[in-house]
Design a protein that fits this description.
This protein is α/β, with parallel strands linked by helices. Helices cover 36% and strands 17% of the residues. Helix 4 packs parallel to helix 11 and helix 12 runs parallel beside helix 14. The N terminus is likely disordered. Strand 14 and strand 15 form a beta hairpin. The longest helix has 20 residues. Strands 4-10-9-8-7-5-6 form a 7-stranded mixed β-sheet, with helices on both faces.
Length: 406
Amino acid sequence: MTTFAGRETTASFIELDERWSTHNYHPLPVVIAEAAGASVTDVEGRTYLDFLSGYSALNFGHRHPDLVAAAVEQLGRVTLTSRAFHHDQLGLFCRELAELTGTELVLPMNSGAEAVESAVKIARKWAHRVKGVPDGTAEIIVAGSNFHGRTTTIVSFSTDETARADFGPFTPGFVTVKYGDAAALRDAITPRTAAVLLEPVQGEAGVIVPPEGYFADVRQACDENGVLLIADEIQSGLARTGTVLALDHEGVRADVYTLGKALGGGILPVSAVAGRRDVLGVLKPGEHGSTFGGNPLACAVGRAVVRLLNTGEFQQRAVEVGAHLHTRLTALIGQGLSEVRGRGLWAGIDIAPGGPSGRAASEALMARGVLCKETHERTLRVAPPLVITREELDRGIDAIAEVIRP
């Protein structure tokens, strides 16, 4: 541990961050030093329940022993080759992830934003080479209040002004419609439309679940017009909602999926684009790549994640413990909450007018030993690790009830 002449305190570490790191986040004033399962411990020995899970990157909890073991074993062998050479983990990872997700081809990348950028490039090239859309004119339909990352291309189609302000000029080729409005989406399709890019559940917007039948209507519109459906499962996928892919709840298959966050097991960034062979197959050598994408360490951890998901245990926990979560949170409507949304072990809760702001509620929860985070002004996202016990969950919900009580 870095020392400060005997001043290893929360304040001293935050002082370091404030002095030397760019202020692109507004974190809670807690400095985490250790973690295991659903709990974290700060530099002064205080323990907290993690009700955020790294925005679902920690679906399996902190330092899951199977994932740590896979990382340690691979660290002793080889960690990086670049894609200039083959290595013994890549093909296995791609095959196993494809089998898990019911897809045919996998493109490994690093961050979630890279996966989305890759899917955008693939959709455009597919439209130009397969659909016959003139080069440079392909369009992708997206939804308002989306969150797909923070690269310049992605913020070009964000409706969040905080994400967009001062970052222009923006990338053209995107058409925005209201999330959940299938008629508006159908009306936006033209002969230039390459793809529709949607989150099965909108996370950053406040865990927004689409209306029943929405994705079936979107799928039909895509099929009738020769348009690809891209599902961004970076936050919603890999057991968070109770199924491997959140879109499975809708009985609909996408042509392309973007995956990330939990795919790295909370150990390192791992993402992927998975989908139809005839779609991802439009990429040829030299047209797209990443030095670290699909590296041996990432593939070894990703394979361990796939093994955990193949048991079905974590999907079942999301269903069972998630039902308890929603039962308890729904009981707080009228008692400090105005609305509860979500699916599986994932909820967006709106604090009723007259209650604390989202930030104030997060700080009050931290004081009670629960780490949660606001989105927008009056919404909290509740997404504990899937390994959380019912007793731990109840303790966290009790704290929420105290904080939001009128």
